[in-house]
Amino acid sequence: MTPFWRRRRDEDLEEEIRTHLAMAARDRVDRGEPPDAARAATHREFGNVALTKEITREMWGWRWLERLVQDLRYGVRMARRSPGLTAVAVLSLALGIGVNSAMFTVVESILLRPLPYAAPDRLIMVYSVGSFGPITFRDGNFTEADYVEMLKLDVFSQLAAYAAYPAAVTGGGEPVRVPRTQVTPTFFTALGVAPALGRAILPSDDATAETRAAVISDAFWRRRYQADPRVLGATTVVEGIPHVIVGVMPASFNFPPKTELWTPVQIRPTYRANTSVKLLGRLRDSVSPPQALAVLQTTLTNLARARSTTGRVVERERVSLVDLRDSLVGKVRRLLLVLLGAVGCVLLIACTNVANLLLARAASRGREMAIRTSLGAARGRLVRQLLTESVLLACAGGALGLVLAYVTLPAALSWLPPDVLPRTDEIQVNGAVLVFTFVLCVATGLVFGVSPALVSSRAQTIRSSHQRVDAGSPRDSRLRGGLVIAEVALVLVLLVCAGLLLKSVWKLQHVDPGFHPDGLVTMNIALPDRIYRTVEEKRAFYERLLDRMETVRGAADVSAVTFLPFGGLLVNGDFTIEGSERCKPPSLMVDKPSVSERYFKALGIPIVRGRPFEPRDTAAAPLVAIVSETVARTCWPGEEAIGKRLTMDDPSKGRWLTVVGVAADIRQADLSRSPVPAIYVPMRQESHSFFLNAMSFVSRSGPNISSELREAVRELDPSLPVGPMQMLDDRLAGSIAEPRLRAAMLLAFGALALALALVGIHGVMSYEVVRRTAEIGIRRALGAPTAAVLRLVIGRTMRLVALGAAGGVAGALAVTRVLRTFLFGVEPFDPATFASVAGALVAVAVVASAIPARRAALVDPTVALRSE
Fold first, then answer.
1. E strand segments, 91-140
2. What percent of the chain has pLDDT over 90?
3. Cα-based angle 742, 748, 752 (whole degrees, multiple of 5)
4. Distance between CA 282 and CA 321 in Å, rounded?
5. What contacts 160, CB < 8 A, 6 or more positions away?
6. What is the DSSP string of 627-656?
7. CA-CA distance, 429 to 656, in Å (whole number)?
């Protein structure tokens, strides 16, 4: 039976009892009894009608739901009777539950939600693991020959290879440079995703044909082709090669992240000169990841041993398998879990505030509870009623918090620096978030409601209704004090974590990168091999562009470099010095930028010895190089590096470079790491075409000349896309965007927790003053000065804060160990940070207790005693 039929059943029960009584009375009348006496006797014989109804209803079931509805109605009435307390409680809970719902939305979308592919749990990334010189890698690529060998193994139902490189796209609009991924025909089938329009890349799509196939992303289709469905069959030019658009991917497809163009990749079965492809596999249903790993490791080890002349296996032949989702989100997992823990602390602080509010309200409800107890209400029934009221408050706060999360989350995500979090396009409130919020509301209501409920019900079992009822016993006061202590401890943990991260960011911002980025605008140019085939053609174009940029009004110190500091690309390699085994791998790996002669002046990199590059350092002149201080110090300790010779090719080729200068070390890509050793070569002498495929140009000028710089490129080659121009100091600042985000979010949560603590301490001390009004009145009547009364209130606050701070320090010492990997130049136990946070908490506590202390100092003894 459902509760919706209860009214009908009640009516039927009422009619049945009435009919039974009438029939019994009529039988007695028929036997000669007077009607009034017959009805009275029938009622005496039947017994308590109301009790019979209750017993019958219990047998029907659903009684618990009826009582719950009664409790909810009563809870709503109680909330209306105390609008101030209800508003404060709901707002506190809305903030606590809201930030938790928002944070869970992010965590669920990034870490928990399955990838939008077929059977995503079977998708894995295959990585090579090892080291090359001082460089250790765990997500390395494979050679094309390795991929061909793995295809023969019976562990994958599909195995795909891909390589991601930006590509210039011309035709059909303004030349642009887009993220492009070259893939094997098995790429889309391995993921189990089909294009929304057209088809995917097929085995028949030749990667070396004059005209090749291309699949584009939904975003690129809408931006460049205005979502025209007739785009299929259109021709676009990618890196100087015509491509026919054969498909458009769904809007939800985003792998590899940010890719806008997929084209066929050329696989050379015997090519082992370079590890150029990443591998994505779909495991067979009968194969587990450990089994697949064992087979792959054995196969590659045997291949490596067969190729080795010594029988040894090089370090990088080791393999690892990583779940595809973990490969995308693994780097941010710890950050998100730390932030989720932080918002959990905020919610606990909100719970302590509401618990103290309910404890204070219990005093005003003492007589009510005493009367209900005297009328037979069991303690369990009272506790259930009070917990229902608490859960009702939590649900109201949760509903408001969910609205706040839904409204503020998009704005917060738009504020995030780009590429800090993966899968941001999938972050949205869904059914899982709603269920989480509901469960959190119920759990929260029980957490902050259980103590007030037990205190209220316990107090009333030992008092009668005619006695003065007061929930402000010393035991209850200790409970309120304990909640304040817990609140202070949680706030201190949050603020210490935020303080450590802030100090770490401050230290990062004050690291000397070794160059001066202020006022430098950067511009990236990439030359397609199809058009610029030789190294001479590429060098000639860059030299013409440098000459043309120098004529732009406002441009100064125009220069070029292959690997711009903090430009997102860094290539390390080995080298050999003449006449020595020193500085061969694995002893030292260096960055190998090619630069124009004004590069060092433009970036303000000091040449500590020797000379910079000069216009006379052409391809026809003797080959020269400039080494960084680390290279000079490591390779020629105690000697002068100027005049020494080295090569970055096979020594048998005889391309020896003479060191003409020593430059100061710079940080190339990460402020938190040591400077990268480097060997600079003149751009005019660069002999490797690969290193000249792309070049970054810098000019000490303002960003207002961007259009003129773009025009300079168009004059020389209208088909070349110009990458977005950016100030070099912005690039430098972007390199610490993630540390700033961590610090900012923890600081925001800490500030919210501190505000809640301020409200909580103020509320507790205000109630303490009200509860002890008579005591304060007696003290004043006996001559206690105002300062003594102030010390009474503020001293109580300081004792609670001191105990909370002690617990918070212990908790922070345990928690901050988790932050060790996020810190730079700061130890998890930093005395200055701990002392600063403790001092801030003391100041806040004094402010919070100042108003209640002043109110206590102004108590009139006669009024206070009369009220008693």
1. 123-132, 135-140
2. 23
3. 145
4. 11
5. 183, 184, 186, 187, 189, 190, 279, 280, 281
6. EEHHHHHHHSTTS--TT-EEESS-GGG---
7. 62
Report the candidate in 502, 535, 568 with the shortest Cα–Cα distance to residue 731.
568
Query: Could you tell me which of 158, 192, 144 has the C-alpha nearest to residue 287?
Result: 158
Question: Where are the alpha helices (H) located in 571-679, listed in sequence order?
Answer: 599-603, 629-635
User: Residue length, the chain?
Assistant: 868
Q: Which of 328, 311, 162 is nearest to 254 (CA)?
A: 328
Question: Among the residues of 429-471, which ranges form H helices?
Answer: 431-460
Task: Show the CA angle centred on residue 621, arms to residues 619 and 624, nearest 5°.
Answer: 90
**Residue 126, strand partner residues:** 279, 321
Instruction: Give the bridge partners for 560, in sequence order.
Output: 697
C-beta atoms surrounding 251 within 10 Å: 13
For residues 835 and 812, what is the distance between their CA atoms, to the nearest angstrom? 12
Quick one: tokens of 628? 């960084």
Residues 465 and 720 sit within 8 Å (Cβ to Cβ): no
In Å, the largest CA–CA distance within the chain is 140
Number of neighbours of residue 100 by Cβ within 10 angstroms: 23
Contacts of 167 (CB under 8 A, 6+ apart): 177, 178, 180, 238, 239, 261, 263
Q: Pairing state of beta strands 278-283 and 123-132? A: antiparallel
Give the helix ranges, DSSP H, for 204-323: 218-225, 289-307
CA 270 to chain centroid, in Å, comes to 42
Q: How confident is the model at residue 310 (pLDDT cuts 50, 70, 90)?
A: very low
Closest CA to 190 of 140, 124, 128: 124
Calpha distance 148→270 (Å, rounded): 9
The pLDDT of residue 313 is 40
Gap between the Cα atoms of 455 and 362, Å rounded: 8
**pLDDT tens across 224-278, in order?**
999 998 999 999 999 888 999 999 999 989 999 889 999 999 998 888 877 889 9
Structure tokens given for 637: 């300790």
CB atoms within 10 A of CB 51: 9
pTM summary value: 0.80
103: nearest Cα among 115, 92, 112: 112
For residue 675, give both structure tokens: 């400077």
User: How does pLDDT run across 544-558, given as a tens digit for each residue?
Assistant: 999 999 888 888 889
Contacts of 485 (CB under 8 A, 6+ apart): 800, 803, 804, 807
> Residue for token digits 């938190």?
672
Average pLDDT of the chain, as a whole number:
82
Q: d(Cα 509, Cα 825) in Å, to the nearest integer?
A: 12
Exposure string for 343-374, b = 16+ CB within 10 A, e = fewer: bbbbbbbbbbbbbbbbbbbbbebbbbbbebbe
Number of Cβ within a 10 Å radius of residue 612: 19
Asked if residue 311 has pLDDT above 50, the reply is no
How many Å apart are CA 301 and CA 312, to the nearest integer? 9
- 627 forms beta bridges with 662, 679
Rounded to whole angstroms, the Cα distance separating 182 from 778 reads 86
CA distances from residue 264 to 175, 319, 690 in whole angstroms, order as listed: 21, 25, 20
- Give residue-wise pLDDT tens across range 86-112: 788 888 889 889 999 999 999 998 888
Q: What is the 3-state secondary structure (H, E, C) of 712-747?
A: HHHHHCCCCCECCCEEHHHHHHHCCHHHHHHHHHHH
Cβ atoms of 20 and 46 within 8 Å: the answer is yes
Q: Which pair of tokens denotes residue 662?
A: 């020593």
* Backbone φ, ψ for residue 287 (5° rounding): -115, 130
